[in-house]
């Protein structure tokens, strides 16, 4: 999540200064009938070294709103903390749980206004009683887009085809969990910056259910 | 970025009691993307002589072909099998010939001397400087991790079965902390009259 695959000391031209920031991660969110399923891999890399192989990239904003973080670990953690603070305050003024759209709007304010300083690709996902399960994608640059299914991070490039071919609206909870697990597994197979375990979150009216799928329990695909 | 880290990969070789082992990962990738999990970097050069060629994948193939060519000519002219230390010297010469435009390979040699059956391991930098230690050698993009694993796990006079366990654990756990190594592994245990080739199941991420 930190930087691209660069050896600082072996490169006298300092091309790591201009190297593209691969947001080394695979994250995903998917609507189903009754809520959303969110998922992420668990790898944090600094260059090619795996600094953390059990990272939790699914961060709580409120009991019913979570975000999937990709990009700079420092930037996304700081943004999530600020959004959590604002939403806490807003919740007290409102007297009821805040809307997912509101959380997304606060993420957008930060990611857009500080776009020159930040490297953050975030999926905001959750449940509220006005619109049910929702996903808002806030990529680098700070636009917002509501989507029924959304993928992000460097690993997502390898699975756009799989997602387009296999997503169906109004899936059951079990179908959605399987779909997210399969997609992330395929991304982790191909992307060097993604790997480890698959962490899932299922957000519904009753709250969130967290799951971990360990390496040996992941679905098996053709491994060429 | 470093050319030696463009494709990624890891090779390790260890000495045991009257045996040597050499192991490689199987990843073929381009920067962060993995293309295939069927590209081992270790090749058999003689009945008890193996060479590992991690680094830039195109040079892995070219150096292997050029090495095979030189070895064949040697064995035809001399009418005998090449010894491991001679092979290292030849490989060192091949690399130094390209001193100012080198092959991006940091090779590992492992074998049993055909005459006195002594175990031999050797590694080199990309311009052919040889290093012939008494214990183990490592090469690739996770050498830091490999040194740590080998230093902790290796001990002298391991039997072939123990050596297999040791070298497998060293390679697999080091590669699991490297984003551009892994995706399968092959281990060769070389004894006087038997070569064992084992494909180790690893994480595929």
TrEMBL record, chain A:
PROSITE patterns recorded: PROTEASOME_BETA_2 (PS51476)
EC number(s) reported in the record: 3.4.25.1
Highest taxon of source: Eukaryota
Gene3D superfamilies for this protein: Glutamine Phosphoribosylpyrophosphate, subunit 1, domain 1 (3.60.20.10)
SUPFAM superfamilies per the UniProt record, alphabetical: N-terminal nucleophile aminohydrolases (Ntn hydrolases)
Active site (catalytic residues): 25 (nucleophile)
Gene Ontology terms: biological process: proteolysis involved in protein catabolic process
Name by which UniProt lists this protein: proteasome endopeptidase complex
GO molecular function, one term: threonine-type endopeptidase activity
Catalytic activity: Cleavage of peptide bonds with very broad specificity
Principal EC category: hydrolase
Quaternary structure (record): The 26S proteasome consists of a 20S proteasome core and two 19S regulatory subunits. The 20S proteasome core is composed of 28 subunits that are arranged in four stacked rings, resulting in a barrel-shaped structure. The two end rings are each formed by seven alpha subunits, and the two central rings are each formed by seven beta subunits. The catalytic chamber with the active sites is on the inside of the barrel.
Keywords: Cytoplasm, Hydrolase, Protease, Proteasome, Threonine protease
Location, primary (coarse class): nucleus
GO cellular component, one term: nucleus
Automatic annotation (TrEMBL), chain B:
Keywords: Cytoplasm, Nucleus, Proteasome
GO-annotated cellular components: cytoplasm; nucleus; proteasome core complex, beta-subunit complex
Keyword Cytoplasm: yes
Localization, UniProt: Cytoplasm; Nucleus
Entries under Gene3D superfamilies matching the protein: Glutamine Phosphoribosylpyrophosphate, subunit 1, domain 1 (3.60.20.10)
Keyword Electron transport included in the entry's annotation: no
Gene Ontology BP terms: proteasome-mediated ubiquitin-dependent protein catabolic process
Broad class of the protein's primary localization: cytoplasm
SUPFAM superfamilies given in the database record: N-terminal nucleophile aminohydrolases (Ntn hydrolases) (SSF56235)
Taxonomic superkingdom: Eukaryota
Family: Belongs to the peptidase T1B family.
Oligomeric and partner information: The 26S proteasome consists of a 20S proteasome core and two 19S regulatory subunits. The 20S proteasome core is composed of 28 subunits that are arranged in four stacked rings, resulting in a barrel-shaped structure. The two end rings are each formed by seven alpha subunits, and the two central rings are each formed by seven beta subunits. The catalytic chamber with the active sites is on the inside of the barrel. Component of the proteasome complex.
Function: Non-catalytic component of the proteasome, a multicatalytic proteinase complex which is characterized by its ability to cleave peptides with Arg, Phe, Tyr, Leu, and Glu adjacent to the leaving group at neutral or slightly basic pH. The proteasome has an ATP-dependent proteolytic activity.
Protein's recorded name: Proteasome subunit beta
Gene: LOC112049479
């Amino acid at each position: 999540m930190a930087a691209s695959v660069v050896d600082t000391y072996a490169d006298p031209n300092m091309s790591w200064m201009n190297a593209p920031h691969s947001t080394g991660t695979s994250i995903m969110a998917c609507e189903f009938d009754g809520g959303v399923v969110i998922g992420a891999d668990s790898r944090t890399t600094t260059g090619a070294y795996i600094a953390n192989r059990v990272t939790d990239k699914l961060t709580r904003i409120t009991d019913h709103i979570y975000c999937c973080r990709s990009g700079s670990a420092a930037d996304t953690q700081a943004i999530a903390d600020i959004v959590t603070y604002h939403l806490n305050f807003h919740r007290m003024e409102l007297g009821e749980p805040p809307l997912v759209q509101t959380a997304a709007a606060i993420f957008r304010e930060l990611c857009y206004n500080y776009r020159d300083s930040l490297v953050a690709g975030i999926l905001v996902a959750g449940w509220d009683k006005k619109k049910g399960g929702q996903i808002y994608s806030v990529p680098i640059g700070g636009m917002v887009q509501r989507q029924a299914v959304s993928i992000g991070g460097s690993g997502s490039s390898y699975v756009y085809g799989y997602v387009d071919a296999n997503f169906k609206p109004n899936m059951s909870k079990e179908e959605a969990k399987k779909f997210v697990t399969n997609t992330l597994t395929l991304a982790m197979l191909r992307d060097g910056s993604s790997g480890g375990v698959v962490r899932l979150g299922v957000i519904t009216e009753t709250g969130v259910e967290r799951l971990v799928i360990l390496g040996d329990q992941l679905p098996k695909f053709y491994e060429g | 970025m470093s050319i030696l880290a463009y494709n990624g990969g890891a090779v390790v070789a260890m000495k045991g009691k009257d045996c040597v082992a050499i192991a490689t990962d199987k990843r073929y990738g381009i920067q962060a993307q993995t293309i295939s999990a069927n590209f081992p970097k270790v090749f058999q050069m003689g009945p008890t002589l193996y060479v590992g060629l991690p680094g830039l994948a195109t040079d892995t193939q070219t150096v292997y072909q050029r090495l095979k060519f030189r070895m064949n000519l040697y064995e035809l002219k001399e009418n005998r099998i090449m010894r491991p230390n001679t092979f290292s010297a030849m490989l060192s010469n091949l690399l130094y010939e390209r001193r100012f435009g080198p092959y991006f390979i940091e090779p590992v040699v492992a074998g049993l001397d055909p005459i006195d059956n002594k175990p031999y391991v050797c590694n080199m930098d990309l311009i052919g400087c040889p290093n012939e230690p008494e214990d183990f050698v490592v090469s690739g993009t996770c050498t830091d991790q490999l040194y740590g694993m080998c230093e902790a796990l290796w001990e002298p006079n391991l039997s072939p079965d123990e050596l297999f366990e040791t070298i497998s654990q060293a390679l697999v756990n080091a590669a699991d902390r490297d984003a551009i190594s892994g995706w399968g592994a092959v281990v060769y245990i070389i004894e006087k009259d038997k070569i064992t080739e084992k494909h180790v199941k690893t994480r595929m991420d």
